[in-house]
Write a structure and sequence with these properties.
The complex is a heterodimer of chains A (about 160) and B (about 375).
Chain A: H1 8-143, H2 147-163
Chain B: H1 2-16, E1 18-20, H2 25-28, H3 33-41, E2 46-52, E3 55-60, E4 62-67, E5 71-76, E6 85-86, E7 89-92, E8 95-98, E9 105-106, H4 111-136, H5 145-165, H6 173-191, H7 202-218, H8 222-229, H9 236-282, H10 288-325, H11 340-348, H12 360-363
Classes of the chains: A mainly alpha (about 160), B mainly alpha (about 375).
Subcellular location (chain A): Cell membrane; Endomembrane system
GO cellular component, one term (chain A): plasma membrane
Protein name (chain A): ATP synthase subunit b
C-alpha cells in the first residue's frame, strides 16, 4: 500500500523541481535548440530552392544560348546568301558595264574612224582640187603663152556669155 | 561538464558515507523477498549504496518536517535511523511520525528528491551544453552529444507534436521535450544499481500527469467542451449518458498516464529484484546461472521500456493537448486528417475518448 500512496513531500519537490527544470530547459535549451534546428532546416530548404532556381536558370541560359546560336547560324546563312547574290549582281553589273563600255568604245572608235575618214576624204578632195587647179593652172599657163590661144579662149568665153 | 559531474558526485559521496555494523541478528532470520524488493523500489530517507560484512554504506539525507503550529524542523536522518527517536520524531518504516501522534508533514530530501535534483541538474547542464554547441557550430553538422540527441528532439517535434497537436504545436514543445527527456533519463538512472526508482514512484508520475491535465484544461477550446457535454453525431438520449462518461474520461486520461509509467517501471524493477532474490531464497549460488541471464534479459528489456514509456507518455500528452486545441471540423469525416483511423474509431464508439487507448501502438505497451 505504501508503494501506491503518493507522498506529499515528494509531490511538492517534484512539482517545484520539475517546473524549475521546465523553465530552465525552455529558456536555455529548447529555445536555442529548436531555433537552430528551424534555422538549419530553413537554410537547407533555401539552398535546395536556390539550387533548383540555378538549374532552371542554367536551363534557360542553355536554351537562350541555343536560340542565339541558331539565330547566328541563320544570320550567317542569310549573309552568305546575300553575299552570293550581291557578288552575282556585281559580276552581272560589271559584265553589263564592260559590254556597255566596249560598245561605247567601239562606237567611239567607229565615229572617230568615220570622222578621220571624212577628214581624210576632205583632205584628199582638197588636195585633189588643189592638184587639179595646179595642173589646170600649169596647163593654162602653158597653153596661154601663145596669144592666139589666148584669143581663142577669150572668144570661147565670150561665146558662152553670148549664149547666155 | 564531465569534471563538474565528477566533482558533484564526489561531494555527494564524501558527505555522508558512514560505515555501520551490519546487524548480526538478521543473519539468522528468514529472507523475506517481498520486504526487500519493496524496500528497494520505495522511497527512503537514506541513500543505501551497498552493504559489506563491515557495514552498510549509507548517505543520510536531511529530514525536513513541518508540524502545524510548531514550524519546521530540519535534521539528518542519521538521528532517526534504526528506530531511534530524535526529539518528537521517529521513523515508522519509512514514514515519519511524531511520538505524541500529532500531525506532521514530511518535506524531507528523500532519496528520490535527491535523485530528482541531481538528474535535473544533469539534464540542465547537458542540454545547455548541447544548446551551446548549436550556437558554436552554427550552420554545421551536429557532433557529439548534440548529434545523439538531435534525432530525438526532431522526432518529438515532427512525429509527436506536429502530428498530434497540429499547427499550434510550438507552444507545447518545451513541455513535451522536457517530459520526454526527464522520463527517459530518470528511467535509465533508475536502472543503475544503487540509484533511486524515481519514475517508478507514484507521486512523481502523478505530478507529471496532473501537469499534463492542467495544460490540457488550460489550452482547451470550446470545441473540446462541446465534445464532452454535447457530443456531436450521437443520438440525443445517448448524449445524456455520454456526459458523465466523457467527464470521467477527462480524469481517466491523466490517471492512465500516471499508472502506466509507474506500473511499467516499478514492475520492471520488481522482476529484476525477484530474479536476484531467487538466489537468496534457494540459498545457493548455483541459482545464479538461472537468475543472471534472466535478470540480464529483463534489464536489457528495461532499457527499451525506459525509452518506450517516455515516448508513450509524451505521445499521449501530445494527443490529449491535440484533442483540447483541435478546431471544429465541418465535415465530421476528418477527411485527409492526420488521425484518420483514430477519428473514425472515436466516432464508431460513440465519440468516446477511450478510443485513444485502443491505438495499437499504445495497447502493446500496456
Amino acid at each position: 500500500m505504501e508503494l501506491i500512496t503518493p507522498e506529499l513531500g515528494l509531490i511538492f519537490w517534484q512539482t517545484l523541481i520539475f517546473l524549475i527544470l521546465l523553465a530552465l530547459l525552455a529558456k536555455f535549451a529548447w529555445k536555442p535548440i529548436l531555433g537552430s534546428l528551424r534555422e538549419r532546416e530553413q537554410g537547407i530548404e533555401d539552398a535546395l530552392r536556390q539550387a533548383d532556381r540555378a538549374k532552371a536558370e542554367m536551363q534557360s541560359l542553355k536554351a537562350d544560348n541555343e536560340k542565339l546560336l541558331a539565330e547566328a547560324r541563320r544570320e550567317r546563312d542569310q549573309m552568305l546568301k546575300e553575299g552570293q547574290a550581291m557578288a552575282a549582281q556585281i559580276v552581272e553589273q560589271a559584265k553589263t558595264t564592260a559590254s556597255e563600255e566596249a560598245a561605247r568604245v567601239t562606237q567611239q572608235a567607229r565615229e572617230s574612224i568615220q570622222q578621220e575618214k571624212n577628214q581624210a576624204l576632205a583632205e584628199v578632195r582638197n588636195t585633189a582640187a588643189q592638184l587639179s587647179v595646179d595642173i589646170a593652172e600649169r596647163l593654162l599657163r602653158r597653153e596661154l603663152t601663145d596669144p592666139s590661144a589666148q584669143q581663142k579662149l577669150v572668144d570661147e568665153y565670150l561665146k558662152d556669155v553670148k549664149l547666155n | 561538464m564531465k569534471r563538474l559531474l565528477t566533482l558533484f558526485l564526489c561531494l555527494f559521496t564524501f558527505a555522508g558515507f558512514a560505515a555501520e555494523p551490519t546487524e548480526g541478528g538478521k543473519k539468522g532470520e528468514a529472507f523475506n523477498p517481498g520486504e526487500v524488493i519493496l524496500h528497494h523500489v520505495a522511497d527512503s530517507h537514506e541513500w543505501h549504496w551497498f552493504s559489506t560484512d563491515n557495514g552498510n554504506f549509507v548517505t543520510y539525507l536531511p529530514i525536513i518536517a513541518y508540524q502545524p503550529g510548531k514550524g519546521l524542523s530540519v535534521f539528518s536522518s542519521k538521528h532517526v535511523a534504526e528506530g531511534e527517536t530524535y526529539g518528537n520524531f521517529k521513523l515508522n518504516g519509512e514514514k515519519l511520525v511524531t511520538l505524541d501522534g500529532s500531525k506532521v508533514y514530511d518535506f524531507s530530501i528523500t532519496k528520490n528528491v535527491a535523485a530528482l535534483a541531481m538528474s535535473s541538474l544533469v539534464l540542465v547542464i547537458a542540454f545547455a551544453s548541447v544548446a551551446k554547441s548549436y550556437g558554436r557550430r552554427r550552420g554545421q553538422a551536429p557532433s557529439g552529444l548534440q548529434s545523439f540527441l538531435e534525432p530525438f528532439v526532431i522526432f518529438i517535434r515532427d512525429e509527436v507534436a506536429i502530428k498530434s497537436i497540429g499547427p499550434k504545436y510550438e507552444r507545447y514543445m518545451p513541455y513535451l521535450l522536457t517530459v520526454f527527456f526527464f522520463i527517459w533519463f530518470n528511467n535509465l538512472l533508475g536502472l543503475t544499481p544503487g540509484a533511486a526508482n524515481l519514475t517508478g514512484n507514484v507521486a512523481v508520475t502523478a505530478t507529471l500527469a496532473v501537469i499534463t491535465l492542467l495544460i490540457t484544461l488550460f489550452s482547451s477550446n470550446k470545441n473540446y467542451w462541446t465534445h464532452i457535454f454535447w457530443t456531436p453525431g450521437v443520438p440525443l438520449p445517448l448524449r445524456i449518458i455520454m456526459i458523465p462518461v466523457e467527464l470521467v474520461g477527462v480524469i481517466v486520461k491523466p490517471f492512465s498516464l500516471m499508472v502506466r509509467l509507474f506500473a511499467n517501471i516499478t514492475a520492471g524493477h520488481i522482476i529484476i529484484l525477484s530474479f536476484i532474490s531467487l538466489i537468496f531464497i534457494f540459498r545457493s549460488a548455483w541459482t545464479g546461472f538461472l537468475s543472471v541471464p534472466f535478470g540480464l534479459f529483463i534489464s536489457v528489456l528495461e532499457l527499451l521500456v525506459a525509452l518506450l514509456q517516455a515516448y508513450i507518455f509524451t505521445l499521449l500528452t501530445a494527443m490529449y493537448i491535440g484533442g483540447a486545441v483541435e478546431e471544429h471540423h465541418d465535415d465530421e469525416h476528418h477527411a485527409g486528417h492526420e488521425h484518420d483511423d483514430y477519428g473514425f474509431a472515436e466516432q464508431r464508439q460513440g465519440g468516446s475518448n477511450f478510443g485513444h487507448f485502443e491505438r495499437p501502438g499504445v495497447a502493446a505497451a500496456h
